[in-house]
Amino acid sequence: VGEGPAASLQLRDAVLDGAGSRATVVRRAPGAEPEVLGELRLQVTGRHYLLDAVAALAAGLELGLAWPALRDG
């Protein structure tokens, strides 16, 4: 999980501004093409908040929860 190219759940194109933080979330499974899940938006500004959120998303996805429900939560 992170921003690096080897991350299994990767943040791309992070934007941090006065309105919050947002980034594109991409899932990278071994042997498969990267899958763009969608945009993650937070109402707080900070790269560390994005990284915390994507770690929580990774846990939810591993438990079998759907991306839309996790994103909206």
Strand content: 25-35%
Provide a count of the helices: 2
Order of helices and strands: EEEHH
How many strand elements? 3
The poorly predicted ranges are: none
End-to-end distance? 19 Å
Described by the principal axes of the CA atoms, the overall outline is globular
The largest β sheet comes out as: 3 strands, antiparallel
Mean pLDDT across residues: 93
Main sheet: strand order: 1-2-3
- Structural class from helices and strands? alpha+beta
Radius of gyration: 12 Å
Helix percent reads 25-40%
Could you give the topology of this structure?
Layout: E1 9-17, E2 20-27, E3 35-42, H1 47-62, H2 67-72
In short:
β2 and β3 form a beta hairpin.
Please give a structural write-up.
This protein is of the alpha+beta class and 73 residues long. 30% of the residues lie in helices and 34% in strands. The protein has 2 helices and 3 strands, in the order βββαα. A 3-stranded antiparallel beta sheet has the order 1-2-3, covered by helices on one side. The longest helix has 16 residues, at 47-62. It is globular. The two termini are 19 Å apart. The mean pLDDT is 93.
